[in-house]
Write a structure and sequence with these properties.
This protein is of the alpha/beta class. It is built from 24 helices and 31 strands. The chain has an eleven-stranded mixed β-sheet with strand order 7-6-14-8-9-13-10-12-11-15-16, with helices on both faces. Strands 28-29-25-24-23-30-31 form a seven-stranded mixed β-sheet, with helices on both faces. A six-stranded mixed β-sheet has the order 17-20-19-18-21-22, sandwiched between helices. The structure holds zinc ion (2 copies). The site of one zinc ion has 8 residues, from helix 4.
Length: 826
């Protein structure tokens, strides 16, 4: 008979906080193995004794049968002397050095816990904080690793005898479930309004439901922060929420009780249902149906709604009891990180919420909801957050030293990287407020402490005005600077390691470029560490610089002035002020020979927007002399200009409003021109912000006959500039965009197609020059599905291989990771 032997097995990867040790315990019993298992830093250590054949089967099963939430790395197995162990034991965690920590993200309730939640005979029936080893909060409640109860925000809750019994029983599914809780010993709800307070779970829930039914706004503490909830079918409630926040037009997310109710309101492709219902419970942008019963104020002017399903047992109960969809928007002040602390929320959200539903489980760190959009058939992240962050990624090479990349100024995330690992933080937000910068510092410290890695260098954007520059200076660490669009291109390139040579289009708002102008419509050839700018757009000066991002009329003025095109006076000024009811204002175009010029070469009347009434004379003077009018080649600003010239958005109430509305209009089926013109006279905005919800998408049969002018792009001249850069000229778009004989939908559609066509022509020139076949699309502009899909299909028709990011956000939230990749290769 063979002798019992011993092995030391180490497993790294995501093996803590996911029920891995109980799994090892059960497996050991199954295979007649004695010894022990314990957590050591980020890994699981096993001492296993048994017959050689049993040891082999046991080792194989460790990987093959691993729990669903885990992601074990390769096993490291070494023979060792036997201890003649009689049993298999789970030992306390041991903290050592050389950490290889992996943090599990937060997950929705598993099926077993959900069944218990709804089982009247279970002791956790309707308990809002039910969880087990396979579900519940993780990242947002871990204070320290290794992952043990004292290292979570559950430390303050002493387990009752029954919970302790489950926790200590290796055969129980809550064995070592660190956040284990029940109504006797765990966290509880508290409802607070001006007139009443309830500390009992059921009473608090009932009061919150009653308030919601009554059209009230309730701030609800969730897993990674507070949400503001209100009835998604109640116009008045939503109007109040918008007025208070203030958030006049930015789309609001909607939480649905279940997949059935979701299907009734929006189109959910079957393959997407699994994703929406996954334990991450993300917000997914989905096309709304007609007659959804949802308020029109949820996403004015847009065809899509951000939808999610309940992501915690508390939300499952709330939505179940309420029985209909609820608006669920982040409980924060505009642009700031989501609030997590009860007292702070009560104070800072007091003017927004009519009532509060708190609970007493502390949130250790904020995590906003993750957001995805389906483009070319694949859900792609627009924002990382609860359930998807921290995003742990593997690097192709070893970093020479640990670095912290600080990302962008907008949509900020951080990326901590060491060895061959990189970790991207959840969404922090715009770095315009002291609170955002505090959060950045907090997340930076927190990531380094949790992963037990100290960055010895910071990687930052080249832009000297980004909000984190002061933090970077104060850190005293050496800085490495990376160009904005190189970082975008490198993040994309990392996702597709099979491609060695790229043509990458990095189109976004603005980022500082190598020639000190504001780039945003660039094409590069090469690969990480050696990007070459190869194509761009005709540049223009942006009057007012930074202000242009929120005031699309400035970009419109820039294009009109730059190209010497003008338009007659009109009923509505571009700057939003009331028009003068008198003589048309003299156009102020510096390049125009004829200041009264009111038509283009095509003989069509330009849209009634006068350059003269666009802006005060002073601004034009400043622009003429290049004062506070930085040179830009941004496609994001071309979208802004197009939205303004079509009259649908001259002042944006949130970043990207103009482009988003323009895209929504581009998906509206053709309408008779008369209707559009009437609307123009009545007020462009009414028409523009309320497109009929449509089921059709571009390219479908309803999109109009093949000969429809909707399908005809405007050719943009492409020429080599003196520096050898291919540049497309946007000027021919202006007459079309301002042509009032065309419906706004048609102009919007043709604008998208024209840019897609220009992109393909640039790619063809660059392929002819370099032989490169692979095209990547990155930068915030490619969150635009109409543009991205039009570009992809045209590129593929032209024989290109096309790639769009799907793991790291295409917008500035992916910049921190791209900075690490670019640093790695430089
Ligand atoms: Zn569970
Ligand atoms: Zn208990």
């Amino acid at each position: 008979m063979p002798e019992r032997e011993a092995r030391h097995i180490t497993i790294s990867g995501r093996v803590q906080g996911v029920g891995f040790r109980p799994f090892v315990y059960r497996l050991a019993h199954q295979h007649d193995i004695t010894g022990w298992v314990r957590n050591v830093d980020g890994a699981v250590d096993i001492h296993a004794e048994g017959l050689p054949a049993h040891l082999e089967r046991f080792s194989a099963a460790l990987l093959v049968e691993a729990p669903p939430l885990s992601a074990p790395g390769p096993l490291c197995i070494t023979p060792c002397p036997t201890d003649h162990a009689e049993h298999f034991a789970i030992l306390d965690s041991q903290s050592g050095t050389g950490a290889d920590v992996h943090l599990p993200p937060d997950g929705f309730v598993c099926a077993d816990c959900l069944a218990e939640l709804h089982d009247p005979y279970n002791r956790r029936h309707r308990y809002p904080f039910i969880n087990c080893t396979q579900c519940g909060p993780r990242y947002t409640l871990i204070t320290a690793l290794p992952y043990d109860r004292p290292g979570t925000s559950m430390r303050g809750f002493a387990q009752c005898p029954e919970c302790l019994r489950e926790y200590e029983n290796p055969l129980d599914r809550r064995f070592h479930a660190e956040p284990i809780a029940c109504p006797v010993c765990g966290p509880h709800l508290q409802y607070v309004s001006d007139v009443e307070t309830f500390n009992d779970d059921e009473a608090a829930l009932a009061a919150a439901i009653a308030a919601l039914r009554d059209g009230k706004i309730v701030a609800v503490k969730g897993v990674g922060g507070y949400h503001l909830l209100c009835d998604a079918t109640n116009d008045a409630a939503i109007a109040r929420l918008r007025a208070r926040k203030p958030r006049p037009a930015k789309p609001l997310a909607v939480m649905f009780p279940d997949v059935e109710s979701l299907r009734r309101a929006v189109q959910v492709p079957p393959e997407l249902e699994v994703f929406v219902a996954s334990s991450e419970r993300p917000i997914v942008l989905l096309t709304r149906r007609a007659d959804t019963g949802l308020s029109e104020h949820i996403a004015p002017g847009l065809a899509e709604i951000g939808c999610l399903l309940p992501y915690s047992p508390l939300h499952a109960l709330l939505l179940n009891d309420f029985g209909g969809p609820l608006v669920a928007t982040s409980g924060n002040l505009s642009g700031e990180p989501v609030l997590t602390d009860n007292a702070e929320a009560q104070t800072r959200l007091n003017h927004l919420a009519d009532a509060f539903l708190h609970h007493d489980r502390p949130i250790v760190r904020p995590a906003d909801d993750p957001v995805y959009r389906v483009i070319a058939g694949t859900p792609r992240p627009l924002r990382l957050g609860r359930g998807s962050a921290p995003l742990e990624l593997e690097l192709p090479l070893h970093l020479p030293e640990p670095v912290l990349a600080l990302g962008s100024h907008m949509k900020n995330t951080l990326c901590l990287a060491w060895g061959n690992r990189a970790v991207v933080s959840p969404h922090i937000g715009e770095l315009d407020t002291p609170r955002s910068l505090d959060t950045l510092a907090q997340v930076a410290a927190d990531l380094q402490r949790l992963y037990q890695v100290q960055a010895s260098r910071l990687v930052v954007d080249r832009h000297p005005g980004y909000g984190y520059r002061r933090y970077a200076r104060d850190s005293g660490l050496p800085l490495s600077e990376v160009w904005h669009h190189h970082a975008h291109a490198s993040a994309l390139a990392w996702e597709f390691p099979g491609v060695n040579e790229w043509i990458v289009f990095a189109w976004d708002g603005v980022g500082l470029g190598e020639d000190q102008t504001l780039w945003g419509g660039e094409a590069f050839t090469g690969a990480p560490g050696r990007w070459q700018r190869a194509a761009s757009f005709r540049s223009f000066r942006l009057p007012g610089g930074d202000k242009a991002g929120r005031e699309p009329w400035r970009a419109a003025a820039a294009l009109l002035w730059e190209s010497g095109q003008t338009a007659p006076s009109l009923s509505r000024k571009l700057d939003g002020s009331e028009p003068d009811r008198g003589e048309p204002v003299e156009p102020q175009c510096p390049h125009s020979a004829d200041p009264g010029q009111a038509s283009t070469g095509s003989g069509r009347t330009l849209h009634p927007l006068s350059t003269g009434s666009i802006a005060p004379e002073l601004l034009h003077q400043a622009w003429t002399h290049g004062i506070n009018s930085p040179v830009s080649s941004s496609v994001g600003r071309l979208f802004d200009a197009a939205a303004a010239l079509c009259g649908i958005c001259t002042h944006a109430s949130f970043e990207g409003e103009g482009p988003m509305r323009l895209e929504a209009l581009a998906t509206v089926r053709p309408e008779p021109v008369d209707t559009a013109q009437e609307s123009l006279v009545e007020g462009l905005v009414q028409f523009a912000v309320r497109p009929e919800p449509v089921e059709a998408s571009p390219g479908s049969a309803e999109w109009g006959p093949a000969s429809s002018p909707f399908d005809v792009p405007i050719a943009l001249p492409l020429e080599l500039d003196p520096l050898g850069l291919w540049r497309s000229d946007w000027a021919p778009l202006l007459p079309m965009l301002t042509d009032v004989t065309l419906s706004i939908a048609e102009r919007a559609a043709r604008f998208h197609l024209s840019l897609a066509q220009a992109l393909v022509e640039q790619a063809q020139q660059l392929r002819a020059q370099t032989g490169i076949q692979a095209v990547g699309l990155t930068g915030g502009v490619f969150q635009n599905r109409v543009l991205a899909e039009a570009a992809i299909s045209r590129l593929e028709d032209a024989g290109f291989i096309v790639r769009l990011p799907q793991r790291v956000p295409v917008n500035d939230a992916g910049l921190s990771f791209g900075q690490v990749i670019e640093f790695l290769h430089s």
